[in-house]
Write a structure and sequence with these properties.
By secondary structure, the protein is an alpha/beta fold. The chain is built from ten helices and eight strands. It has a single domain, classed as TIM Barrel, CATH 3.20.20.190. Helices cover about 30% and strands about 15% of the residues. Strands 1, 2, 3, 4, 5, 6, 7 and 8 form an eight-stranded mixed β-sheet that branches. Helix 2 (about 45-55) runs parallel beside helix 4 (about 120-125).
Length: about 270
C-alpha cells in the first residue's frame, strides 16, 4: 500500500474515542488468509483456488477487486490481463462478457482444465458461510461493492484492505461498520511510532510485513483490540518463518501456503 494519502486520512478522521470495527468471526484463534486463494495448485484469483482454500481450512481468501468497462466487479490482481490470461490489455477496458471469454493461464502446463476470471458475485456465492473474504480493494466503487456484498448477505464475512484515501473515505461513508485494514508503513518500527500511527489513522486491522513487528508492538495492538495479520507470503516461506511469527505473538498471517501452514499449526496444537 502507498501511504502518500495518510495526511489526508488524518485530516478527515474524528478525534473522538476510537473503537475498532470487529473483524469477521472465525472458529480459529490463529487466522490464515490464503493469498489470492490457495494457488499452489490452481491459478491465483480463480474459483478453483478459492475452493482449494476452503478445502484446506483457511479462514480467509484474499481476493483483488477490479471494475470492468461496463461497471461489473471481477477478481484480478494486476490492472493488466497480460500476465494471467490469453488476452492483452487492461481490465477496465473490457466488458464483463469479453473478460469471461478469456482463459486464465495455469502454471501446470499439462492440465486440460480451463480456468476463467471470476466475478465478485461468483466469489461471494462460493464463500458464503464457508470462508471469510479479505478484499484487497484495487479499483472499484465502495458503494457498489457494498451493495453486492449486502445482496449476498455477506456483510459479516468481509474485511476491506485499503489502498487509497478515496477508498478509505468511501468505505467509511458507504458502510461505517465495515472493518478496514491498513498496512503499517515500513518506516514504523517502534512501539511509539505504531502508537502514533494508530492514534492518527484508526485502523480496524493491521497488515504490513511480519518482520517489522516486535512482541511489544503486537502487545500494543492487543491493547487497542486491533488484530495484526501481516504478510508472510513468499514461495520459500516455511516453518522457520512461521515459528518466528509465533514468537512475536502474532495470531494471523497472509500466506502463499495455507495448507502447509494449517498442518504446521495443528502439529503445534494451535488449530
Amino acid at each position: 500500500m502507498q501511504f502518500s494519502f495518510i495526511s489526508f486520512i488524518a485530516f478527515i478522521l474524528s478525534t473522538g474515542v476510537f473503537t475498532p470495527n470487529p473483524a469477521p468471526k472465525s472458529k480459529h484463534k490463529f487466522i490464515i488468509a490464503a493469498h489470492r486463494g490457495d494457488h499452489v495448485i490452481y491459478p491465483e484469483n480463480t474459483l478453483e483456488a478459492y475452493r482449494q482454500a476452503i478445502k484446506n481450512e483457511a479462514d480467509y481468501v484474499e481476493i483483488d477487486l477490479r471494475t470492468t468497462k461496463d461497471g461489473e466487479l471481477v477478481s484480478m490482481h494486476d490492472g493488466s490481463i497480460n500476465r494471467m490470461t490469453d488476452g492483452k490489455g487492461n481490465v477496465k477496458d473490457f466488458t464483463l462478457a469479453q473478460l469471461l471469454e478469456l482463459k486464465v493461464k495455469s502454471k501446470d502446463t499439462s492440465t486440460t482444465e480451463v480456468f476463467h476470471i471470476p466475478t465478485f458475485k461468483q466469489i461471494l456465492s462460493l464463500c458464503k458461510n464457508k470462508i471469510n473474504i479479505y478484499l484487497d480493494f484495487k479499483a472499484a466503487d465502495p458503494e457498489l461493492a457494498y451493495q453486492v456484498i449486502k445482496e449476498y448477505g455477506m456483510e459479516k464475512q468481509v474485511l476491506v484492505y485499503i489502498n487509497s484515501a478515496p477508498q478509505f473515505t468511501g468505505w467509511r461513508k458507504a458502510a461505517p461498520q465495515m472493518p478496514l485494514m491498513l498496512s503499517l508503513p515500513d518506516s514504523v518500527k517502534t512501539v511509539a511510532g505504531m502508537d502514533s500511527f494508530i492514534d492518527k489513522y484508526h485502523p480496524d486491522i493491521l497488515d504490513g510485513s511480519y518482520n517489522q513487528y516486535t512482541n511489544d508492538m503486537v502487545a500494543l495492538a492487543d491493547k487497542y483490540h486491533i488484530p495484526v495479520w501481516p504478510d508472510i507470503q513468499s514461495a520459500g516461506e516455511g516453518p522457520a518463518d512461521w515459528n518466528k511469527a509465533l514468537d512475536k505473538g502474532l495470531r494471523g498471517l497472509q500466506t502463499d501456503h495455507p495448507a502447509a501452514l494449517v498442518k504446521f499449526l495443528k502439529e503445534k496444537g494451535l488449530r
